[in-house]
Amino acid sequence: MARDLAPEVERLLQFRDPNIRKKAALCSIRIIKKVPELSENFINPAASLLKEKHHGVLITGIQLCTDLCKISTEALEYFRKKCTDGLVKVLKDVANSPYAPEYDVSGIADPFLHIRLLKLLRVLGQGDADASDSMNDILAQVATKTESNKNAGNAILYECVSTIMTIEESGGLRVLAVNILGRFLSSRDNNIRYVALNMLMKAISLDRQAVQRHLTTILECVKDLDASIRKRALELVYLLVNESNVKSLTKELIDFLEISDPEFKGDLTAKICSIVEKFSPEKIWYIDQMLKVLPKAGNYMKDEVWHALIVVITNASDLHGYTVRSLYRELQTAGEQETLVRVSVWCIGEYGEMLVGNGGMLNQEDPITVTESDAVDVVETAIRRHSSDLTTRAMCLIALLKLSSRFPSCSQRINDIVIHYKGSFVLELQQRAMEFNSIIEKHQNIRSALVERMPVLDEATYSGRRAGSVPAAVSTSQGAPLNFPNGVAKPTSTPLVDLLDFSSDDVPEPGSSGGDFLQDLLGVDPSPASSQPGGNQAQKSGNDVLLDLLSIGTPPAPSSPSTVDMLSSVQDDKSPVDMLDKLGSASVPCTRASPTVGSSSMMDLLDEVGPISSAPVAENNGSTYPSLVAFESGSLRVTFNFSKQPGNPQTTLVEAQFVNKSPNAYSNFIFQAAVPKFLQLHLDPASSNTLPASGNGSITQKLQLTNSQHGKKSLVMRMRIGYKINGKDVLEEGQVNNFPRDL
């Protein structure tokens, strides 16, 4: 119908009756939206409507031209060349027109026509410097002469600011626009303040310095009674933080945190923690700010935030004493904050002797008197609190076990507390209590080794996983160099899944293992372990792994050099069974993989009963598979060599060989791969990160692929290879679909 009626509607655009012309223009808008290819037929008639004297025809003609520009590039170029100057003249006439009661709104001359003209000029000026230059003067005039004490005037000013922010403009006019938004923030009307905050968020990318001048006003909006304004202002403040103002802004936000509404504390706490992590100039400042947030809003702090705090604390060896003393002080007044209790208990367990002995004192610190009994009291109070959850109580039990070694005089008292939980209805606590009681009473000879301080935790690995840069089934052999001057990791690049362009059906969920505390804390390989033949291994959640201090039955990822059991926190890097081998009841091979052991076997091990056998090391069964050239370009060739583990047809071992065919050596070489959900991928480190030129050497790297649908689906992999050549970064990508079908 639109196609058939279009010629007739086009003819009516030149009809002598202005009301008919207005209706025809409105109909034309609907026709070009239904049938965009007809838009070119309406370009010339629409342009003629811009010269109309009749108000109704003019305003509908402007709307028709605006829609034509959005639909047709040809129309946009035509109106830019032929109509921009005419539209500027019309806007100037409207802005300077005398009082006309017919179109006046609260003393503002024809605000609806003002707004339609500004919207069309915005479309014409976007991306075109000449058109933008021709409208600068009239935009400045509208911005300075329009009254801002009337709602109609504010509507015109808002559209004017939006146009200035969109067209190709110099900084001067943008500063004027930002100043208008600053005046909007002082308005008593919540709607005006809200749209001003929205527009300022867009203006940051164009002129951050101009927006920074209104930071004080924006901070006041964070304390507004209206929840929408508070939230939007907080997001804007977050975008305005930089290294120079981070300390003052953080202080303002933390001060407001104490008096803010409970429903706003969650968002505010998350933003403060993110700001502190991202911009902290030094570790002591980071720790100080987090210790201010914990007593005020610890219950609103997300798990990954206090996990990151513990990682930073372990890396700040000179601040261990200062941190544990500060936490002890805060715990005396804010013991109801669950997260504060967890961090404090963890630090007291690790650095309790520094708390008692005032070790590692800083110059600005005042010494405090804390006895061994006082330290144990804090942990006992936390574990007996009725509101403490399972995680907190389990952490308290671990801290008590560590303190039993650090404070021998309190060992019996600690054992009595632990024994109390041997009858707990919570299986997790009951198991720990039994195991810890056995260690305290029967195995003093290995207790000190079991409860040594945690090794320094890798900030880069933990922060990378938090940022989602290493999803569960996407592995990197060697990360790009990271710079952490503050000791606090900055957010990394977009997740590899997005970079490798996998569809949602084929890509593992990015958050599948990033939240596991022990994995993040101790650098455990996030890829799941492959199933042992003949065994039925149940996977435990990350919280179970965190809580299960002695659970050597949880299988680590096979042959992963980063797999660490909680029990193996000793510095000599022995596995739990290696360390307990002093009992004379365990026999272990050279591998790091531990057998699956039940709770009763664990007790047998501690009670020197029964040997433990270990799973055999898999060897190649002799099957041969043809080599595969997985990727080849003009400068690089990648070859895959395959082998299988005996009795485990689901698992394929791949040795990748990279050869440089160009005359230039490659540095910073990195191989990345991603696989669909039905596959599990584990990457070992590459043999080198430098690839010699002209095939005079190669880099090798071992991969392990486990196919959960072996025999039904073939292997498939997407790869990306990065390197530097003559100081320039190069990326090459490819997909491997031609794996041998019997793998």
TrEMBL record:
UniProt entry keywords in alphabetical sequence: Cytoplasmic vesicle, Golgi apparatus, Membrane, Protein transport, Transport
Domain of life: Eukaryota
Annotated Gene3D superfamilies: 2.60.40.1230, Leucine-rich Repeat Variant
Region of interest: Disordered: 501-569
GO BP, sorted A to Z: intracellular protein transport; vesicle-mediated transport
Sequence similarity: Belongs to the adaptor complexes large subunit family.
Protein name: AP-1 complex subunit gamma
Originating organism: Olea europaea subsp. europaea
